[in-house]
């Protein structure tokens, strides 16, 4: 065997809940201040990547883009997930790293209260 073999270890750092919420709030407010935070209706009849691409182009959003939608909005989630440099997530899994990575942020009307609840809770 090897005298001191590499052992698996976690590089995760503990971060206080209040600090995590403050970081998310700061990242979201930075998007709001520079006008790169958009609100969209999540009521799509059928999944359509063309319609999603057209919406992004019409809005003039720069990529990378993060789309935050409620889990019940299947058509919208499927429409955006195939676009290049677009990350699709639900409010419960929205992280600070994704928000900071994105140049534009698109939130559905159904997901907005859930995102606000994550920041304020």
Can you describe this structure in just a few lines?
By secondary structure, this protein is of the alpha/beta class. Helices cover 42% and strands 14% of the residues.
What's the structural blueprint in terms of helices and strands?
Blueprint: H1 17-34, E1 37-40, H2 49-59, E2 65-68, H3 74-80, E3 86-89, H4 96-101, E4 104-108, H5 112-120
Parallel strand pairs: 1-4, 2-3, 2-4
Helix pairs in contact: 2-3
Could you walk me through the main structural features you see in this protein, from its secondary elements to its overall organization?
- The mean pLDDT is 93.
- The chain has 5 helices and 4 strands; from the N terminus they run H-E-H-E-H-E-H-E-H.
- Helix 3 links the parallel strand 2 and strand 3.
- 42% of the residues lie in helices and 14% in strands.
- It has a single domain, classed as Ribosomal Protein L4, Chain: A.
- With 121 residues, it is α/β, with parallel strands linked by helices.
- It has a 4-stranded parallel beta sheet.
**Regions with little confidence, pLDDT below 50 for 5+ residues:** none
CATH superfamily membership:
Ribosomal protein L4/L1
The number of distinct helices, counting runs of at least 4 residues, comes to: 5
Q: How large, in whole angstroms, is the Cα Rg?
A: 17 Å
Give helix % range. Answer: 40-55%
The CATH architecture can be given as: 3-Layer(aba) Sandwich
User: Which structural class best describes the helix and strand composition?
Assistant: alpha/beta
Query: Which class in CATH terms?
Result: Alpha Beta
| Annotation, overall tally of beta strands | 4
Strand proportion, as a percent range, falls in 5-15%
The CATH topology comes to Ribosomal Protein L4, Chain: A
Global mean pLDDT: 93
Q: Roughly how many Å apart are the termini?
A: 51 Å
The tally of structural domains comes to: 1
Major sheet summary line: 4 strands, parallel
**Biggest β-sheet: strands ordered side by side in the sheet:** 1-4-2-3
Q: Can you tell me the overall shape?
A: globular
- Write down the secondary-structure element order: HEHEHEHEH
